[in-house]
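Why do we care about 3D structure at all? Because function follows from shape, and shape follows, mostly, from sequence. That is the central idea of this module. The next example makes it concrete: a single protein chain, its amino acid sequence, and then its structure expressed as tokens.
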Amino acid sequence: MPTKIPNSGSLVPIPQRDLTTALVPFNRQTGYALAKSQTPEEFLPDIGRWVTVGGLALLGIFGAAVGLSAVLKYKVTVQAAAAIRPVGELGQVQSPIEGSVINIAVRENQLVKVGDPIATIQDVRLESKLQTRRSQLSGDIQKGKQQIFGIDAQILSLDRQGVAEREQSSRSISGIQAELTRAQRDYHDK
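And the structure:
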């Protein structure tokens, strides 16, 4: 039985088996037939093995990242300008020296009294002066050691000179005594 296809004006014979599977009668009175609606799966290609593997890999990486972010801890350091102000009356706490804060001795909202330490500050200028003074003192100690070494050498030289002079004096005294003894013998002989 020929079927009329819309907008063609001609009849096209469609076999009975294709007609039941491919066409659904729309209106029996007009004899028009519509194409059977298709599902999206019939138009989309199959998902390949590599797409599946890639998707599973991305899903695994995402899961590992979420798991690691829950387990691993990391330090967060924020640098910002700050001012310490007391609760109540408005006043600014300021150190007479400039430097880096090494330790903060108070907690947030802790009451402090006059004279309580708030923070420990490392004075860079004082550290520099201290280092300069240390190097000067080290140089002075080295010079003092050299002077002591020189004085010890002079003392040793003077001791040797004293020993040599004593020996010479002893020889001179021995020579004079021998001459005195000879002179006395001569005197007794005369």
